[in-house]
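Structure in, sequence out. Go:
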């Protein structure tokens, strides 16, 4: 009985074994993996440390206002530094009102642009539209503010007063849409909507691109119109991501400073008239921090602490809402 030599297993090559890298847990691969883990951990801890330092330093600087003013600082309805009144409620009200008004305008436009780019526009024109939106996001906020201050306030005043005159006989609308001087909550909100639209559009567009093409093709094959396919396939699949995009835009809107300061008018007040002059927390800090002393400076830094807490709550709420909505859409809850 003879054996074919070419059927026998080849003997291991000692030279090849010595030259191959050791990828075991105790070898080169294990050391690289442990190093990467340490670097990633350090990067994550750096972010947390930065947030902690921001919170500690700003709270320490604002503590004189917190301790001296107490509840009147957080629940007071008058912000008149010349009279020693530092109630932040009008500023919080203005910040939330302007941000919400901006989202009311920006979200439908952003979703429409994202749908246009992903579902309607020709492939050759898609890049041009996307680039234009991305370039709009890169424009500095001060440019938007100066443009609005010099060129938009007079048209805003004319348009707002025309609307106010048209609804003057309607009880509720006459209060919400009252007379305007041009600088107002609505003016700041409209320019702010233009600023957050690229952010919401970019995130929403990326979410829409994750919808499986087979699901969309299946809906169209079953006889659905394009709108029915978007409503029944694209929106349910993208609800969580769209919610995250909107909350991201909200956080961006709440922290905007220069553009809002140039357009809102600088009068802390609580009013139902969205065409009236108002003020926000970032704008108030921007106007007065360089000239403020002692208690006033501490009160302004306290506004930064409150804004910091609000933005954290917005981001935490966004993450929670995304998880809950995804579970409901997918039938897990």
């Amino acid at each position: 009985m003879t054996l074919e030599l070419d059927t026998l297993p080849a003997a291991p090559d000692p030279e090849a074994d010595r030259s191959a890298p050791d990828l075991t847990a105790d070898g080169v691969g294990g050391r690289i993996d442990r190093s990467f883990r340490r670097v990633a951990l350090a990067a994550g801890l750096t972010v947390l440390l930065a947030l902690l330092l921001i919170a500690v330093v700003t709270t320490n600087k604002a503590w004189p206002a917190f301790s001296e003013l107490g509840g009147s600082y957080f629940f007071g309805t008058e912000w008149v530094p010349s009279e020693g009144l530092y109630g932040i409620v009008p500023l919080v009200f203005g910040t939330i009102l302007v941000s919400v008004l901006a989202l009311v305008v920006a979200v439908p436009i952003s979703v429409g642009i994202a749908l246009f780019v992903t579902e309607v526009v020709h492939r050759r024109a898609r890049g041009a539209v996307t680039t234009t939106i991305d370039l709009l996001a890169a424009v500095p906020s001060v440019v938007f503010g100066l443009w609005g201050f010099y060129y938009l306030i007079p048209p805003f005043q004319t348009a707002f007063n025309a609307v106010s005159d048209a609804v003057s006989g309607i009880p509720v609308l006459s209060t919400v849409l009252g007379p305007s001087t041009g600088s107002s909550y609505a003016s700041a909100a409209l320019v702010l909507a233009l600023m957050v639209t690229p952010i919401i559009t970019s995130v929403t567009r990326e979410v829409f691109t994750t919808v499986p093409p087979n699901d969309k093709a299946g809906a169209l094959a079953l006889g659905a119109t394009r709108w029915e396919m978007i409503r029944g396939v694209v929106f349910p699949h993208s609800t969580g991501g769209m919610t995250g995009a909107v909350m991201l835009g909200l956080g961006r809107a709440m922290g905007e400073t220069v553009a809002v300061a140039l357009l809102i008018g600088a009068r802390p007040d609580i009013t139902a008239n969205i065409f009236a002059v108002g003020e926000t927390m970032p704008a108030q800090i921007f106007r007065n921090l360089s000239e403020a002393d002692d208690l006033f400076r501490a009160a302004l830094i306290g506004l930064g602490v409150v804004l910091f807490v609000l933005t954290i709550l917005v981001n935490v709420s966004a993450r929670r809402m995304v998880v809950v909505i995804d579970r409901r859409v997918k039938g897990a809850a």
